[in-house]
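Students often ask why inverse folding is considered easier than folding. One informal answer: many sequences map to the same fold, so there is more than one right answer. In these notes we will look at a single instance of the problem. The structure comes first.
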């Protein structure tokens, strides 16, 4: 299962993200029920997550969290949306769209 949460006002191509994630999961020979969740966020939330988990008070483009050994309660409170908590999940990928666009230039 691939879950995508766009917490920004930017329009995104969810089908592209879903197809790309499916290719990666197949390439990694992931179990059939393995899933990954994507959260697309702005710089404020990304800074807070980066500070909480990496103790770096700055915005970054992408953070990833494995589906195990993560305090999802903290992450949920920052993202304010449901995040998968099953132990068999590939995890959560948090993407700051603004920072990705800046770095792509």
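Output (designed amino acids):
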């Amino acid at each position: 299962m691939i879950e995508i949460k766009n917490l920004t006002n930017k329009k995104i191509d969810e089908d592209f993200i879903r197809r790309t994630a499916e290719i990666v999961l197949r390439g990694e020979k992931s179990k059939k029920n393995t899933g990954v969740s994507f959260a697309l966020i702005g710089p404020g939330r990304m800074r807070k997550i980066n500070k909480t988990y990496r103790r770096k008070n700055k915005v970054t483009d992408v953070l990833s969290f494995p589906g195990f050994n993560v305090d999802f309660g903290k992450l949920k409170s920052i993202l304010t949306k449901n995040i998968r908590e099953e132990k068999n999940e590939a995890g959560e990928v948090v993407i700051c769209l603004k920072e990705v666009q800046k770095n792509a230039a």
